[in-house]
Give the backbone structure.
Amino acid sequence: MTSPPERLSHGQVRLRRWRADDATVLLAAVIASQEQLRPWMPWADRYDENRAAEYLHECEAQWASGNAFAYAIIVGDQIVGSAGLHNRVGDGGLEIGYWVHADWTGRGIATDAAAALTDAALALPGIDRVEIYHDAANAASGRIPAKLGYARLGDQPTRGLWPAAPGETGTDVVWQFTR
Ligand SMILES: CC(C)(COP(=O)(O)OP(=O)(O)OC[C@H]1O[C@@H](n2cnc3c(N)ncnc32)[C@H](O)[C@@H]1OP(=O)(O)O)[C@@H](O)C(=O)NCCC(=O)NCCS
């Protein structure tokens, strides 16, 4: 599929495609945010230099294949989180995922990042639908699509795309924004 731009911006944030040389800053952000990530992100435990490097390598491969487009979220000159578009919700759709460094939450950063990604997704040929999935217990995550005017489609059993994280209930809330 056609790739979105490597750089995006919205409000206070800029998004820049992750690069292989971001491993040190990525590792530091994950380690600083581990307590907040652990309930929802199964990969957050036992994070180390190798896992950061592997993730960035995977980002390059997925960008090339069109499976996912992952960006560092930047405020000023600091990387403050990660957000991306995932090609896993069927034809005509892309899914947004995000996490924000624990020192930077509560300032609208995930909302601005998701707004940039929503616009970028809907600008791609053949994409007319953007979705956000979050665990039913992850109320903070649910605020992002709600604030952006996504429609709440309802609850469904988790898709089981990865091993369950400790905070997950097994029920996802699905939100959708259409062109
Ligand atoms: C979810 C997350 C990305 C939000 O990032 P953020 O930059 O703080 O998001 P925003 O500031 O744009 O909005 C957060 C909203 O959640 C609300 N919030 C924060 N903690 C909350 C909680 N425990 N319960 C309910 N709402 C909460 C905030 O008040 C805000 O809503 P408001 O603007 O209506 O007041 C961040 O907390 C995070 O990285 N969490 C861990 C990873 C994760 O869960 N990722 C999403 C997986 S689906």
Q: What stands out?
A: The chain has four helices and eight strands. The mean pLDDT is 97. Residues 7-178 form a domain with the Aminopeptidase fold (CATH 3.40.630.30).
